[in-house]
Amino acid sequence: MINKIITKRNTLSLLIIMLCNICFSQIYFKVINEGRPATYRAPIVTVSTLKSTESNSISGVPAYIWSYGCTPTAVGMLIAYYNRLGYCNLNYDPYTYAPMNNSEWGISSENQGEDPLIATRKGLNGKTTRGHVNDYYIAFNSSQRDPFLTNGWSEHTPKECIADYLGTSQYNNSALQSDGTVIRPNDGFTITINPQMDGSKFSGLDNPVTCEIGIKKYIESKGYVVSDCYTQVFNGYLDASGTIASNGFTFQDFKNEIDNNYPVLIQLEGHTMLGYGYNSRTTRINVHDTFDYSDHEMDWGGTYFDGTDYLPMTGVTIVHISSPPQGPPVCINCNYPGAPNAPTLNNAAFNCNNNSITLSWTPSSTGSTPDYYAIYRCPSTETMTDNDKIANTAQLSYSDFNFTANANISYTYAVAAINNTGEGLNSNQKTVSLAPCTNTNIFNTNITTSATYKCSNIHINNTSVNNNSTATFNYSNSVTIYSDFNVDLGSTLIIQKQ
Fold first, then answer.
1. What is the pTM of this model?
2. How do residues 418-454 score in pLDDT, each as one tens digit?
3. Does some domain include residue 154?
4. 429 and 444, same structural domain?
5. How far apart are the C-alpha atoms of 62 and 310, rounded to whole Å?
6. N or C: which terminal CB in the chain sees fewer CB atoms within 10 Å?
7. Which three-class secondary structure state does DSSP give residue 79?
């Protein structure tokens, strides 16, 4: 498995170079081996979605193929899972949910995965400037200086993807050790250091940037609070010096994480995966291994076959976000996957009787069912934006009040349908003028609650006022009563010129 091992002993540390750069008990790992898909891997398994006393798995956990490093890819799956729970800002685009797999981005020049959430690149997802891959990546396992250093251009700022924050592939993410050696990640590698063989939790380092610090800072950069982010050896882990961790992370601890819907990063010697389920009877765990989109499993504390070698498990990385999710995003035409189709806005009219604009719409006959609707309004001279949302309603109509008649003012309205997935496309738009009323007809009307009518000319026919209500008619030119206008005892009729 190990093509090259560099060691140097002194009283403080033993340096071993291994792949995902996991370090335990003053042992610095930076494995130089193949961390990408091979022709054969651990068998695909079927994961039950039914919870039982002996097994459980988290639904809705994405599976991504290796994208410029196993650790950023595994972290990408974790971040995508949280994003799809409603932590909208965690995705590269806060108005789209991270997908369940990264196939939509195609394959890289090395025949591996792509994903702008994990590693940005000029030309990927319409990006017009250099990103992570352009500035730091040459080829898998390359130890050459980064392209931005050798070509003399400025690296992109600010950090914009997971691999940026993890320090993956970054030549300058290095540190001089006490024994005179330099630790730095080759292309596709990330540094994770854990010197806590007593089993205590390790929260990472800033110099060099390690996995834990990178994850925490990425999430915090999106406006959320991280309550836990640490790496811990599993209980019983045996390191190269023969020390056994007796207070490490246990299988019961892993079950507790899964039962509380927290996926767990699984650290191996040479690889990082994402765990999302377990079977208590077999003490096996379910993982996405960054090699395909399938479900796999391994023994807790055992080894995982990556197609070339059996990689022993070393520990876990735990990530908890304490900030509450903000729920489905609301935006103009954000069209989240699974969101309802656009409704049809049928009517939008100004009612000068009560100074309101009344809307009515019809939901789409296709697609998912809306839970409620967002109402947007802007002056007709402006372009509608996210800031123009004025209300939510579960009804198929809405009245917007407190307007004053003015022939020179008009507003544009649109409606969007929303469910627990997010907001869909906007409806067609309708523009409403606040022009004063010239003629209004009150025909065949039974007025049972107090009402006020305002218009220049009011025409009344076959109308009654009852139930102790008051009907007020404000006119500026005329009121014409044709026939059958009745006011019951206890009700009131007021006709007055404005």
1. 0.66
2. 887 778 889 999 999 988 888 888 899 999 988 888 8
3. yes
4. no
5. 24
6. C
7. helix
Dump pLDDT digits (tens) for 171-203: 999 887 778 888 889 999 998 765 567 778 888
Closest to 216 (Cα-Cα) out of 162, 160, 157, 155:
162
Q: Are residues 56 and 99 in the same domain?
A: yes
Q: How many domains does the chain have?
A: 3
DSSP state at residue 428 = -
Give 298-324 pLDDT, tens digit per residue.
999 999 998 889 999 999 999 999 988
Range of the domain at 397: 344-434
Amino acid at 392: N
Strands 389-393 and 264-268: unpaired
CA distance linking residue 22 with residue 314, whole number of Å: 8
User: What is d(CA 41, CA 112) in angstroms, rounded to the nearest whole number?
Assistant: 16
β-pair partners for 376: 389, 414
From CA 481, how far away is CA 458, in angstroms rounded? Answer: 8
* Cβ-based neighbour number of residue 364 at 10 Å: 17
